[in-house]
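We read letters as residues; the fold follows as C-alpha cells. Both lines appear below.
***
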Amino acid sequence: MVFRKPPDGGWGWVIVVVSFFTQFLCYGSPLAVGVLYLEWLDAFGEGKGKTAWVGSLANGIGLLASPVCSVCVSSFGARPVAIFSGFMVAGGLMMSSFAPNIYFLYISYGVVVGLGCGLLYTATVTITCHYFDKRRGLALGLISTGSSVGLFIYAALQRELIDLYGLDGCLLIVGALSLNILACGSLMRPLESSYSPPPEKTCVDKVPDQYFVYHEKEKTVEENISILEKGYVDEKCANNMPDYKQDSILNKNVLSSINVNEKDTYKKKVVEQTNFCKQLAKRKWQLYLNYWEETVVLFKNKVFAALFVAILLFDIGVFPPSLLMEDVARSANINEDDYRMPLISIIGIMTAVGKLTLGTLADFEWVNTLYLYVTTLLMTGVALFAIPFAKSYLTLAMLSGILGFLTGNWSIFPYVTTKTVGIEKLTHAYGILMFFAGLGNSLGPPIVGWFYDWTQEYDTAFYFSGFCVLLGGFLLLLAALPCWNACTNQSSKLPPNTYSYKVASSA
C-alpha cells in the first residue's frame, strides 16, 4: 500500500466534515449523560455513586482502551473501524432502553458505547492526520469541536425527548440518530495510491508460503558447509562405483526418493519453525523491554512526572460537573421555571469556545503553553471551590460557562506534551497520559457521588474536586519553575537520554 502526500485540502475537507459529525453523533449522548443520570436515579433507585459509574465508564473507557483502539485502526483502517463502531454506539444506546437494572447499563451504555466512542475518536483523528500536514492543527481543532457542539445540542435534545417519549423512547431515538455514523464512516476514503500495481510474482514467489519459513539465503554458514560436504562425499562415492551398481542404486533411489524427501522436508520445517518462533519471541521480548526502559526515562523527567499527576487529578476533579451539574441544581431547590438553558449545554458550548481560544493563544510566540495550561488548572480549581456557594440558576450558569471554557485546555495539552518530551517521544508519552486521563474520568463521578451518599450534600464533594485540581496545578508549576533548570545546569553530568523542559521556550 502506497500513501500519497497529504493534499491539505480537496477530499480532506470532506473528511473534516464527516469527522466533525461523527464526533458530534457519538459523543453527544455520553457527554450529556447528566440529563439521563437524573432519570436513572429515579428509575432504579440506586445511590448516586453507583449510578454515576454509567456515565464515567462511557467517557473513560475509550481513553483507557486507547492503545487497543490505535491497534485496531492501524490494522483495519479508519473506514471499517468507523462503520463497525457506529453499530456499537447505536446498538449500545438502543440496548440501554431495555435495561432492567443499573448493572445492565454498565455494559450496554458504559462499555459498549464507551468503547465505540474511543474507536471512533481514534479513527477520525487518524484519517484527518493522513489528509492534512500544514493545516493539521486547524483540521484537528475543527473536528474536536464536534463533541462540544454535540454536548450543547444533546443536552436539550435528550431532555425534550424524555418529556415527549420517556427515557426508553429517548434512548431508542438517540441510538437511531447514531446510525448516521455509518454514512459518515463510508466517506472516510483511505489516502492511498490506486495506480501503483504490485510487482508480478516470480516462479519462486508463487510457491505457497506454507512451505517456507526462512529463505535459502538465511541459512547459517555451518548449514551451508555441511550441505556442500555431504554433496561432495556422495558425488565422490558415486564416481568410484561400477556402472551396474550405479544403475541399481539409481533405481532404488527412484523408488524411495519420495518418502525420504518427505521425511527430510518435515524435519527441516520443524527445525526452521522452532527457530523462527524463538527469534520472534526474543524480538517481542526485546520490544517489551525497550518500551519499559523508555517509560522509565520519561518519568525521570520531573515535568512529565508532574504532568502525569496533574492530568490524573484534573480529570478526577473536573469531569463530575458535566455529569452532576443538573443534579446539583435540583439539590439546591432551584425552580425549573428559571432554567433558560440546560447547564450542561452551557458547559458544552463554552468548551468549544475555550478550545478555539486557548488553541489560538498557544500559537503566539510570546505565550508559554506550559504556564498557560497551569493557569487553566488553577482557575478551574478555584471555580470548583465556588460551586457550593452557588444557590441560584444565574450563578450556576456563570460557573458552568467558566468551567466549560477552562476545560477547553484539552486543545493545548498536546502542545505541552510535545514541549516536555519532544516530538520523538510524543506518541509514547501521550498514550500514557491519555490512559490515566481515562482513569480519572472513570473515577471522578463515582467519588463525588459517594461523597454525596455519605454527607447528603455536594459541598464536600466539590471541595475535594477543587483540591485535586489545585494540587495537580501547583505540582506542575513547581516542577517547571526556572530554579529547577538552574540547578540542572549546575550539575556536572546529565544521564543519557534525559529530557529537560526549558521554561523560557515558547510554544
